[in-house]
Write the structure tokens for this entry.
Amino acid sequence: MSSTPGRTHSGRAASRRSASLSTRRSRTALLFVLPQVVGLIAFTGVPLVASLGYSFTHWDLVAPAPTFVGLDNWAHLLSDDRIPAVLWNTVRFILVGTTSLLVFSLIAALLTFTPRRGVALYRAALFLPYVLSQIAVGVVWRWMFNTNSGPIAGIWEFFGGDSPDWLLDPATAMPSIALVTTWQTIGYGMTLYVSALQGVPASLLEAATIDGANRWQRFRHVTVPMISPTVFFLTVTSLIGAFQLFDPVVAMTSASAGPATAGGPSNSTRTIVLYMYNQMFNYSERISGLGYAAALAWMLALIIFLITAAQFALSRRWVHYDDPVVRASRKRARA
Amino acid sequence: MGLRRKSLRIAGLLGGLSLLVSACTGAPAPSVSGGPSAAQPATVRVMLWGNDADVTSIKDAAAGFTTAHPEITIEWETGDCGVDYAACKTLVAGGNLPDVFVMGSWNYFEAARDGVTADITDLLARSGTPTSDFTSTIIKGMTSADGKLYGLPMGYNIQSLFYNKAMFDKAGLSYPAADGSYTYDDLRQWSAKLTLDKAGRNATEPGFDAKSIKQYGYFNFAAGPIEPGYAPVLAAFGGGILGGEARNQCTADASGTIDGFQWLQDLMWKDHSAITPQLHQEEPGYARWVRGQVAMQQGSHEQVLNVQQQNPTLAYDMAALPKGPAGNATLAQIHIWAMAQKSEVKDAAWTFLHYMATDGAGKQMGLIPAYKDVASGPAFAQGKGEPAGLVEAQLTPATWPLTVTNLDPSVVWSAVSSQDGVLPAIEDIVMNRKTASEALSGICAQRIDPLLKSVK
């Protein structure tokens, strides 16, 4: 294969023009994303790097500058006997909160995804709590859970039981908080599920029906695999959110001094982030303050990272990103 | 070459990051000396907290200062620094702490220890105002072990007994003695007699139905459970969570502490005559007293303002807290004018602070003034709408030997009162999960002493 010099020259010129256009486009694109990148670096990147640096220091915020303490905070982290308890509280929250969110928002979506009269109203009603402040929701539910006059105790007693002291009993306080967060986020989960359910190809469901599948079999073998990416997304994001639980606990359990006294009764609702806040602002221990709180934050980030990585690894077994209809049409096109 | 350029870029980025980080950690402290004198024009930033009435009361009290010192401009701000020390910390870290602010007694010593508030001992001495001009218990409590002061009192709260006169009349009981010459046993009996079920039977009568109570005898903030509620009771029983001069010795399992908590638990759960945590969660006990559902409550002077605003026709009076096995005791909570160690207008800030604690004293945040005999005058004792027992219930108890403050000279209370400290045990007591003895026995060795050792 040879080419004439003229053609080579014009080819180079075209190539240069194309490269120049590409560079200009790249620059323009960069200019568009620059504000976002600068914001990301300034408000996420820098604090991230800074917090890692702070985890090797001691600083109570009021001293003129942090003092380098090497690995002291990290060593203390490993010997801090309060950490297993706060992590266990978070696990208790996840067991109730994340599970119920996944199940109830799917039920809500199944009930509301078919277009029919008034369905938008139901969806709006279910979504409404999601836009409310967590503190306001916590204050209202604090009353809802009251043993003397709260409606939940009333319903419980209507069925003949003695209502537990929902938020004042160590056994029921965390599940109660978990159910409140489920109630508040159910609309969000429902919206995602509705969108996923609407994306399930009708042809697949029809094919399954023709093949003799009943309603449950269609749901189990067609719908669930098709919406599995949404289930996965919700699982990952709600678990990350669960590990960052803070506002509802403060709103529903603090005596009077805000986060300083929250986490009760008997430490049963103190989460890792609340403990981090306490270490940062409320405690005056030799190893506390910003440095230790930063080490706790990095420990939390590591836990979240490991759990998310495990979820992604396991997701290969049950999450189906391939749309069989699209796959079949691609196959046809290739043929 | 490419690698070198990359290294330079990384170095530049790290340099930039370190500059940003160092910028975020605050500028070096300004020199203490060299600030403008009080006669020079200056602007003083003053941070207040509280409700609208509190803020207005302070601004009204400062009106005279503005006239006397036109060269000093006061820039008012509202914020939680002083009531919540976490807010002060973030302001300090951001280099934005105001010049003057109001510290609560609960974090006064923490701010002093951290160097956030200025030592005003010499300034006070130079001003010619002797410390004896201030209420002795208050100023003594505020003085550090090495004799230093880090602020001057705006005023203080005293816990007293507020009672509904109509309910006492209806039950045929005589009113509690205003000077506190009655006992906790008396109070318990009254509480039972003043607790009525829907059939009108009181808690001492046979057939009393504890599940249908329409009127309660007593409310104490221990149902919260918070310190201003239980501290006076524990002190009167000869106990307390912390003891010692520096308030750094655990006495949470002492017999006086156990007896005091048991008294509170018995009223709630044995006699069914006091507001429980569940009821307090439903509607705060003090609000129930104001609207006439509870006969007695332990509270501070702010209850007078609550009655004036919410139920002005309520027939009530107040008495000093009763005598326990150890004697009469109460709790004083102090609000303190303090100035920032790093203030660049220290002279002007001091001039303002000194005025507010002395010449401007009185009627600030509804507190009892701690300066000279201002409390005996129209600013407090002779104020309009005050109950008859005010002086004996609010002023005299400040001189009782057993009266305690919630000043925290060893800066340990935050940890001790937390979920890591005594709070779960107190929750168990007020929720009736354990007796006081079961909840508190051995708590010092197991939980509190290790915490006391771990603090700075």
Observations:
- Confidence is low (pLDDT under 50) at residues 10-37 of chain B.
